[in-house]
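Progress report, Aim 2. The chain analyzed during this reporting quarter is listed below.
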Amino acid sequence: MFSMPSLIVILVIVILLFGTKRLKNIGSDLGGALKGFKKAVDDGEVKKEASIEEKKDANVIEGEVVKEETKVEK
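Predicted structure tokens for the chain:
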């Protein structure tokens, strides 16, 4: 892949081109974007689970007795 000296040279060139302040801003923007993406994925999973429960409840007729299936873990 890349050797350590070549990575250092690339890092120095990037710092000279963009400056440390701009790199810091880019890093914080990237971190915020990842945080937002992670939150959106987590919210999507919660909504998916809620919709599954709603579908289960939609199949129940009023007054009908519904037996919950319990899973036994070994």
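Residues 28 and 34 are 10 Å apart (CA to CA). The radius of gyration is 26 Å. These observations will guide the mutagenesis work planned for the next reporting period.
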